[in-house]
Amino acid sequence: MSKKKSNKAVTEEIVVTPIVEETTTAPVMEETPVSETPTTEEPAQTTTVVAEEKQKGRPIVPGCARQIKLAARAAKAAEGKYVGRGRPVIEGSARQQRVAALNAKIAAGIPIKPGRPPMVKPEVVVAIEPAQTTEVQTEATVEA
User: Could you give the CA distance from residue 106 to residue 112 in angstroms, rounded to a whole number?
Assistant: First the structure.
């Protein structure tokens, strides 16, 4: 009986030889690599198999609708035309003006920090007025 261990690139065959012990009636199976097998018989041959790379996915059918559409898209992209992917750019829009200003800052070498700019909090000045003192009339001041 032989077992094969498989690897992606190379497989090696292992020969299993039965060992019979005097005390037991059933043979005990022990695995030994091919290089360690006894040489009383013809030497076992090692089989080497190299795995081939297969193309993954479904096969490409030339002339189908999708391939025609992809070829037309590639031709338009080679000519520099709009290829119909994503939302078209509207020149002069507010967003395009912001993008142009940002690109001008980057070209000028002004560092751009990512994220939202910090919020400027207005300063609140609280004026502290001197405490007003009131005279408390006591019985002693009333009699005087």
Answer: 7
Q: Tell me: the pLDDT tens digits for 67-113? A: 999 999 899 889 888 777 788 788 899 999 999 999 999 999 999 88
Residue 60's alpha-carbon distances to 33, 55, 57, 110, in angstroms, are 44, 10, 9, 49
Q: For the chain, give every domain's residue range.
A: 1-51
What is the pTM assigned to this prediction?
A: 0.29
Amino acid, single-letter form, for residue 19: I
Q: How far is 78 from 70, CA to CA, in rounded Å? A: 12
Q: Tell me the per-residue pLDDT of 26-74, one tens digit each, with 9 for 90 and over.
A: 555 566 555 555 555 555 566 666 667 787 888 889 899 999 999 998 9
Half-sphere exposure for 117 (CA within 13 Å, toward CB):
3
Reported for 21-29, long-range contacts at CB under 8 A and 24+ positions apart, including other chains, are 29/1
